[in-house]
């Protein structure tokens, strides 16, 4: 069950018209491609995708799941939007309520285990290994955890574990964290346990119906067997403009653990079918990722360019993420920025490095143009 | 949808696409050892057949029959169910009719005996017209005006020309084609060009001159020249148009990665490459690796080939899955590029 209803409000204008899992990433992909590819690479062929916020792009992107080989006769991918029941529409009020309202979907398959995922993260993980661990540990619930830097621990759901990796305490975004094992939002439940506790949670009118805040604490209180599954490797929550930019830049690092060129663990996506990239005689490209359909006539340094991007003569793009079909004119200078999908940057614009990563907007461009006119 | 729009849709549903993929060009034999002409890679991510097939799809042709003969494994693998061309349809779609008979020598496109073996396809199809083409023309061609002219003139055969030469593409009524197929023993015609070149024929044959870009690939020389022409923006823009896309089998390659030391100028690079060396005036296909300090100039490198560190490659066509060992130097010439066959290895000791 893949939770993909996230609004991603800290991504500002990038998520104005689309849900966070549909935000472009890595020169070709959308964020959700990583989780969907992990599913198909782990041998999971039945996936429910729970959507709510701005689902249009996401729904049409997922389609019948053929890009991830999830267009299956039995199972496959099913998009699960909120629906109305007799008299009222029930929105998904929290992660737990989203799954609760789709218990019928899970029941059709009568599974032994249910994997609950989030479509907001960039990582590669074999869920099969985690399930083996879950079975070996004879757990009711397994939660995948990763060590995070101590100073960031207050941004996550933090676990305390004993030597057996049993979870003894769980604190959602604690002020003074006692540990630095963070929940990755990946849970394996025994189906009977999940069903029982979601039903209980639904009856509790004071609950916010969230896995981290309500369901996990309730399971702990009732002494169910919760174990932590330690994950090592690249994992990033790309919830902010800064972290989205950083994760894109990580891909340019030769030592980065997230290898897109790993043929044994492909990241699948809907392929845009554009011609190869054209690099003009004047172009210069250093340490970058560039996708098909690009036409490059300027200088590109440490940047990520999505499909269909054009960069005009005399332009210089440095440490910037350029999203699909953006057109950059001539003699443009841009560094440390994110340029959103379809944006047209007029000739001669300069956007210089500042303290934080700049997410360019049409208003910003308008302002720059006005200043230019006055000058 | 407006009425005229609807009319146009219907009009286009009236044409069958027939691609003759049986051609064997002796001059391309080094690239045809493991594949048919139709499946020769071109422009970094396409195969020759993609151009004519996409042109048909862009003209709303919804039933396409492909007649292959030699080494069609790679062609079948490429086309699959036709999904990438939107031809995996319940009604009509993509049909594949490999040659089941040993044919004699013939001179041109559209073997009637090959068609005769699959006459059911023509008889069952409801489309009024049939467009018969070769598989080796690189072009982004609009077939709609050809059909308009054919209907307007009421000709029996419309033959397409480019630069004064026959393109070996013909538009006919399907019923007329069936007649030609069924009377082939009496008339002695073995293929379409037999009909149009027979000075005693009694048909109305018209000529349609195509003035856009087209390259017929029939030798290593023309293959190399057409590839290098892609580097001129005028040709590139004529072939690759947003509303008339050339479609191909998609691969899940990541974007191309330029590492430290990469220096790329005037080149066409497909996805999934990892480049650490110098690339100039070249066409680099999907998932090619170019090692540190390597220099690739005036060359065509096909899918998944690897150029080792410090190699120098100039005026060479390197087929798929070739490994060039570290430090190898190989140079061909502009007029006769050196061809490295698919799946081979080249070491420093094998210098040429």
Quick synopsis:
The complex is a heterodimer of chains A (375) and B (352). Chain A is elongated, with a radius of gyration of 22 Å.
Low-confidence stretches of chain B: none
Low-confidence parts of chain A lasting 5 or more residues at pLDDT below 50?
none
Decide which structural class fits the backbone of chain B: alpha/beta
Number of helices, where a helix is a run of at least 4 consecutive DSSP H or I residues of chain B: 11
The end-to-end distance of chain B, rounded to whole angstroms, is: 62 Å
What oligomeric assembly is this protein in?
heterodimer
- Rg over C-alpha atoms of chain A, rounded to the nearest angstrom: 22 Å
Report the sheet with the most strands of chain B, covering strand number, pairing sense and barrel closure. 7 strands, mixed
Q: Most extensive interface, residues per chain?
A: A-B, 35 and 36 residues
Largest sheet of chain A: 9 strands, mixed
What share of the residues of chain B lie within helices?
10-25%
End-to-end span of chain A in angstroms? 55 Å
Can you walk me through this structure?
The complex is a heterodimer of chains A (375) and B (352). Chain A has 375 residues and is of the alpha/beta class. Chain A is built from 9 helices and 28 strands. In chain A, the strands form 6 sheets. In chain A, strands 1, 4, 5, 8, 10, 11, 12, 13 and 14 form a 9-stranded mixed sheet that branches. In chain A, strands 17, 18, 20, 21, 23, 25, 27 and 28 form an 8-stranded parallel sheet that branches. Chain A has a 5-stranded parallel sheet with strand order 16-19-22-24-26, with no helix packed on it. The longest helix of chain A is centred in the middle third of the chain and has 13 residues, at 191-203. Chain A is elongated, with a radius of gyration of 22 Å. Chain B is α/β, with parallel strands linked by helices and 352 residues long. Chain B has 11 helices and 27 strands. Chain B has a 7-stranded mixed sheet. A 6-stranded parallel sheet of chain B has the order 12-15-18-21-24-27, with no helix packed on it. The relative contact order of chain B is 0.12. The interface between A and B is large, with 35 and 36 residues.
